[in-house]
Design a protein that fits this description.
The complex is a heterodimer of chains A (101) and B (201). Chain A is mainly beta and 101 residues long. Chain A has helices at 7-10, 19-23, and strands at residues 13-14, 34-37, 43-45, 50-52, 58-61, 68-75, 78-82, 86-90. The chains are: A mainly beta (101), B mainly beta (201). Chain A binds chain B through residues 1-3, 6-9, 12, 20-21, 24, 50, 52-59, 61, 66-68, 71-76, 79-80, 82, and chain B through 1-8, 32-43, 81-82, 117, 145-146, 161, 181, 183-186, 198. Chain A: This is MJ0042 family finger-like domain-containing protein.
């Protein structure tokens, strides 16, 4: 059981706020990617996940079961990415501009 | 590129204070709440605290049983890896020595497990000898959920991520298995006076 009105919940963000750090790693906007949760199997866009940023790293959790899906942070010039709870990331193939079109 | 989470980077200059480990600042009256997930609210009727010796549960206390254990009052300084420190915090709780007293030949490491799935690893030697408590009272009041209530681990000589909020189980282990932040590159031990923030420090 979790509280939806406490200070921690009030400061919770949605996954779109993780787009900046993740843009350092991915060639596409990964907040639009759909991710399947390793714990409960729910598939949702990363931007719709729950982001806890008041921590030593950004912690992205499943919007259904709240298990950890992804952690991203930096230290000493390195980006760290943990994808422990994402069994499948699905992203559209980037559209390549065609000069002849 | 700014990828830091909000807890970091608020260091500020202050006069030297020998209570302040390297790289830390005095948070003053503030008691920042850092959280990697939703705050659990386990009803006290369903709460228990267990000690597992690695083969199974060796001791278990309901909330009423835990409250009846001998409590100690302590006043300690806190040091968070996100660089704030807080001096003179007042707690009441049960010494971990008391919780482990009936475990024969305990293994040398402990994994603390909390409601919400949080874990952290510590050497047994840092939880014993009057250096660690399971606390249920802060500043004379029941410990608030946002600070880890109903009960949290308190190991003030290590960075505060070792003082697991919402503690439910201490598991004795033969090896030092990394916990939630330790698997993300945080230091296995976490001594603020040696600034052991990350593995390799």
């Amino acid at each position: 059981m979790t509280d939806t009105t406490d200070a921690v919940s009030a400061r919770r963000l949605d996954g779109n706020a993780a787009g900046g750090p993740l843009a350092a790693l991915f060639a596409v906007d990964v907040t639009a990617a759909r991710s399947r949760c390793a714990a409960c199997g729910t598939t949702a866009a990363l931007g719709e996940h729950l982001l806890y940023a008041d921590a030593p790293a950004m912690v992205l959790r499943c919007p259904s079961c709240t298990e950890v899906v992804l952690r991203v942070g930096t230290r000493e010039g390195y980006v760290l990415l943990d994808l422990r709870g994402a069994t499948l990331l699905t992203v559209p193939v980037p559209v390549v501009a065609d000069d002849g079109a | 590129m700014s990828v830091l989470s909000r807890g970091f980077g608020r260091g500020r200059s202050r006069p030297a204070d020998d209570r302040l480990p390297p790289g830390q600042y005095d948070a003053g009256d503030a008691f920042p709440v850092l959280s990697a997930g939703p705050t659990p609210h386990t009803p006290l009727a369903r709460w228990d605290l267990a000690v597992d010796d690695g083969t199974g549960t060796r001791a278990r206390w309901t909330w009423e049983e835990f409250r009846a254990l001998p409590h100690e009052a302590l006043t300690v300084d806190l040091h968070c890896v996100t660089k704030w420190s807080k001096f003179g915090t007042r707690w009441e709780g049960v010494a971990v020595d008391r919780l482990l007293q009936d475990v024969p030949d305990p293994a040398p490491y402990v994994l603390a497990t909390s409601d919400g799935g949080y874990t952290t690893n510590l050497p047994l030697a840092d939880l014993t000898g009057g250096r660690a408590w399971v606390v249920d009272t802060y500043a004379g009041e029941p410990l608030a959920p946002e600070h880890g209530g109903p009960a949290r681990l308190l190991v003030p000589h290590l960075y505060l991520w070792k003082s697991a909020k919402w503690l439910r189980r201490l598991t004795l282990r033969a090896s030092d298995e990394p916990g939630f932040w330790e698997t993300f590159g945080y230091h296995l031990y976490g001594d603020p006076w040696r600034e052991q923030r990350y593995s390799g420090d």
